[in-house]
Amino acid sequence: MVELFGGAIHMDVPSSLVDVSQFREIPDHQEVYASKTSDQNLIVEILEPVKQKNHEALIYHFEQVAETNESAESQIVSIEPIDINQSFGVDQAFVLVGSQTVAKFKEQRDADNLICVFMALLRVSRFKADILVTMNLPVRISEKSSSFESVRETGGIPQVDIEKDKSEFVAVVESLVIKDTGLFG
Questions:
Q1: Going from the N-terminus, what domains does the chain have, and what CATH number goes with each?
Q2: Mean pLDDT, residues 145-156 taken together
């Protein structure tokens, strides 16, 4: 269990991930954790709610990330509602499984990597906020990617098992607890 946003939120974060803010500046509305040995990462964001309703809001966020990352291809595999602790005002929660083909750090298109994307949206209308939790798991790293050598040196990319990894991701999301609602202003 780690404290996010100055202790306002607690969540189980896999022990294989490290807090990126220890070596890089992260925007105040985000918490970012990354693997030391692969391109796996976990991002928690507090956002203003978008106008889209129900699972359409999660599709919107997925498409925004794909656009921001200049994804050559993106695909949504599934979206489903999840049950989460309603005690802190989550009205709805959805989880999305998808993929994106992206180049890291705006590298050339021939350096595209295939990434499995798990994304959860927690709608907290009481505080006029969306909490977006995203986990990216590399599936294929291009030989021309800046990540290729480090991934090869650490033994390659862990095999992605969609159902197992989705189940672990949902468990991480379900562990999220808001300790201080002052976070929402």
A1: 2-184 (3.40.1000.10)
A2: 52
